[in-house]
Amino acid sequence: MLAIGAFAGLRDAEIKRLDWSEVDFARGFIEVKAAKAKSARRRIVPIQTNLAAWLSQAPIGLRHGRLVPKGVPSKLARARKAAGLARWPNNGLRHSFASYRLAAIHDAPRVAAELGHTSPQMLYSAYRELVLPEEAERYWKIAPAAEVGNLVAFVS
Hints:
This protein is mostly helical. The protein has 8 helices and 3 strands, in the order H-H-E-E-E-H-H-H-H-H-H. It has a 3-stranded antiparallel sheet.
């Protein structure tokens, strides 16, 4: 859930409605169906290399049904508190995605399409030059450690 917000830019509500069947590992994209998108328009979001690494950590047996199982909000609240965050901004990971993706590829129309915006104007005016290219390079290298010993699956 967190990786999809950070590295695919889906809205919190879209992630909560997402089903594993809409994550196409073979073709490398996430389908946000019109019925699940804020804009009521279908979009295809590419799975970035680091996101693929995070998603591959989910046990194959858990890759069916809803991506976000019941009980996750309370677990996220505990994680937020443990991280020392006073609050979790609504769509905060989506905003990070927009900033770092734009800095990495310098293509506002493409990033706007990935986010489901109808025009790149808002994206360009809100996110342009917030992140330096070297920061974007570091962001897109965030991936799970080769050996994961502390990954916890949020199962209901």
